[in-house]
Amino acid sequence: MKLKIFHYFAIGSILLFSITCGENEKPIPPAIKPPEPPPPPAEVFNKPDFIPHKEGEPFDSYRGLVMAGYQGWFGAAGDGCSHSNHKNTEWYHYRENDIFEPGVLRNSIDMWPDMREYEKQYTPGKFILPDGKKATVYSAYDKSSVTLHFKWMKDYGIDGVFMQRFVGEVVDNPDGKDHFDKVLESAMDASNTYQRAICVMYDLGGFLPDRLGKTLDDAQAIMNIYQLKDRSKQKFYVYQDGKPLIVLWGVGFNDGRPFSLTDVENLINGLKEKGFSIMLGVPTYWRERRNDAVSDPKLHDLIKSASVIMPWFVGRYGMNNYSDFHSLIERDIEWCKNNNVEYAPLCFPGSSDRNMHPNNTVNPRNGGQFLWNQMYHTIKSGAQMLYIAMFDEIDEGTAIYKCLNMSDVPSNEAEDEYWVLYRNGSYQLRNSELTSNLGPNDWCRKAGSLNVIFQGIEDHLPTDHYLWLTGQGRKMLRGEIPMTSTLPVRN
């Protein structure tokens, strides 16, 4: 009996303990799941207001294209051009003060071409590479050089180029005409071979009112020689509004050019009568008619008479202040839409022209981020076409074609000692120092103390980086890759 009582007591104690513990015990909460990471932002693609050009088809509009300016003005001693018959012009556009040697104001270029793929090369003699070898250059007078450049356009997906034709170098200048006629002939052939867009651009430097007729005659000769109205002959010449496009660069600048807007109007009308449509190269502040632009309202009348305009931006901004121009470009685009004019914003990789102008500073490229920022913003703002300055401009350091890396450029150190005089805004070479008759902003210094060196492609990048990056900009414009301000990564 006692055993049973003990047994019941034990069972009751166990039950009481269980009940008590159950009452005091808090339920175990469910496991807390970590927060889901936010989804990556949806990729945004440009939605172009054009039908992307199909490879092999004619170019019926500049709209949808990424094209570069092509100077084509470099010549070399012995290249066969009549320029090479004269000591002062044999290194055409490589020279400064009729010299092509190391030293500031003794050459005009700030970058050095990567010469590994050129069929014909020329050795000026005094430029020495870091490995001790003599540096070489090319001549655009050689068809093989121009053909190579058009091959690069094809390889990297650049639509084509505007062939610069300088009025002061082809009108009343037989040697210059010889050079630019040959370059244009080579380019027209290469355009057909590689199916690249091509268009003639007259730079009005050297244009005078009394050269109106001769300039129109030159344009007519191009129309006739290349049969531009017959699409089967020069299939890839750019058309706009159903006519072959021709460009006049240098319209409306307030820098004292020796021609008026009326002179330009006469030139435009004469070109239209010959069957061309018109594109104008205008100042940065063309819309507001201030700063680098004339204030004359007639400038807007000329722009409205054109099919396309391209404002000049080189030297106007750098990496740190490009955002200041965002609203300007957006308002430019809006004005052009409202006035039925196509707008081709200019983008450039950086700039430098210290061998010609040692007072100037270098506008750095930042590994391509500077160029990409411009392409991204202009497309985001509604641009339907881009103008890249420039394909081959090593004079001002804007070239996108293959140039030597910074560590591979030749020395720019002169063999002898000389001085550079800067007075009244111009430069002069001197054999001795000048210390008198200098204004408050004038100076005279030893050339070596100016530390003017050749610029180069950043050492961590391949020499074709800016060709590739321009091709990526074209893909972004066409909606083939996402819109992003982040520099694309090359596989």
Description:
The chain has 491 residues and is of the alpha/beta class. It has two domains: 66-412 and 452-477, Glycosidases (TIM Barrel, Alpha-Beta Barrel); 415-446, no CATH class. Helix content is 27%, strand content 12%. The protein has helices spanning 2-24, 143-156, 167-170, 174-194, 212-225, 261-273, 298-305, 326-338, 369-380, 465-477, and strands at 66-70, 160-166, 197-203, 239-240, 243-249, 277-282, 308-311, 342-343, 346-347, 386-388, 419-423, 426-430, 443-446. Strands 1, 2, 3, 4, 5, 6, 7, 8, 9 and 10 form a ten-stranded mixed beta sheet that branches. α2 packs parallel to α4, α5 (212-225) packs parallel to α6 and α9 runs parallel beside α10 (465-477). Residues 1-23 have low confidence and may be disordered.
According to CATH, what is the class of the largest domain? Answer: Alpha Beta
Extended strand count? 13
Rg result: 31 Å
**CATH third-tier fold name of the largest domain:** TIM Barrel
Strand content: 5-15%
Features:
single chain; 12% strand; 10-stranded mixed β-sheet; 3-stranded antiparallel β-sheet; TIM Barrel; alpha/beta; globular; 491 residues
Summarize the topology:
Layout: H1 2-24, E1 66-70, H2 143-156, E2 160-166, H3 167-170, H4 174-194, E3 197-203, H5 212-225, E4 239-240, E5 243-249, H6 261-273, E6 277-282, H7 298-305, E7 308-311, H8 326-338, E8 342-343, E9 346-347, H9 369-380, E10 386-388, E11 419-423, E12 426-430, E13 443-446, H10 465-477
Parallel strand pairs: 1-2, 1-10, 2-3, 3-5, 5-6, 6-7, 7-8, 9-10
Antiparallel strand pairs: 4-5, 11-12, 11-13
Helix pairs in contact: 2-4, 5-6, 9-10
